[in-house]
Amino acid sequence: EFMQAFWDIEEAQAKAIQHLASFVREKSASPYLLTFTELITFAMKTHVDSLKLQVDGCSLLLEILSQALEQDVVMALDEKVTSSLLHTVRKHSENEELLSLVCTLLMMISASEVAAKNLRKVGVIPDLLSILRNFLHNEKICLSCCGVLWSLAVSENNIDRALLKSAVPVTSAVLQEHLQNGTVTEPACSALWALALQGCLTENEYEPTTALLLDALRMNPERPVLVKNVCLALASLLRLSEISALRFIMDSKGSGINLIKEAYHLHFDDPEVVENICVLINEMVQYDDVVLDMLSQKMEELVSEIKSRFPSS
């Protein structure tokens, strides 16, 4: 009631957010988490020029969403909340600390299909791409933005294809920049898989993207989620193009077949990884040159082992 009575007074809103933070930290605010979220985002939008209020508000929203996740509380965030966060992004597009917080928030809320739909509606993709271009060095921002891109691109709902196509070179740049950082590489590979799935890559992008995904697998073979995403992304590319298939077996740093065999031996006890490796193998066998390479590297032994361990594969 206090916040609603003094919307226009920045200091009143800032003090109120501090008080709300103490309730949230004490975990005594569970029934009111959604109400708090709406009040905080409205205060942020009303006083968008105040950097401190934006930082404090975002930090508290992160705490609220984390608590809701822990407690299995469903937060049905409406378009007002997502548009308020986007308003913050646009007003403070140069502030790295704040953007890091906001992008983490966007990633958390984009996991909900309703929120993802609202983010698409308010036009968040160009903002995400701009942030990535400007802060390519920032691991946290890259991780969060790629996570949001994946959520938006993987959805079956219609989305502007031209807009998603513009995300391909930016996502590839993130992957190239952070190849040795599995934490960032994972969501970047997820985003590239979703973009490939939606048919957003041009013919000129097939070969370099295949090489980049192979590098990601080569440098992070121990990460099961990354292996799964890379296999699905490569499968999508091989489905589209023989150029990708040839690059897969003739990469200058070593054949993709060896990488797949290594990935299997590292994760043979993970059914999801094995399933995605099988999806990739199914795409590999449509090309004669790839089949010849598979035979020369005794890939049939691996296939037989998979069949014996997972009869339904």
Automatic annotation (TrEMBL):
Keywords: ATP-binding, Kinase, Nucleotide-binding, Serine/threonine-protein kinase, Transferase. It comes from Oceanodroma tethys. The gene is Stkld1_1. This is Serine/threonine kinase-like domain-containing protein STKLD1. Its EC number is 2.7.11.1. InterPro entries: ARM-like (IPR011989), ARM-type_fold (IPR016024). PANTHER family: SERINE/THREONINE PROTEIN KINASE, SERINE_THREONINE KINASE LIKE DOMAIN CONTAINING 1. It catalyses: L-threonyl-[protein] + ATP = O-phospho-L-threonyl-[protein] + ADP + H(+); L-seryl-[protein] + ATP = O-phospho-L-seryl-[protein] + ADP + H(+). The keyword Hydrolase does not apply. One of its GO terms (molecular function) is ATP binding.
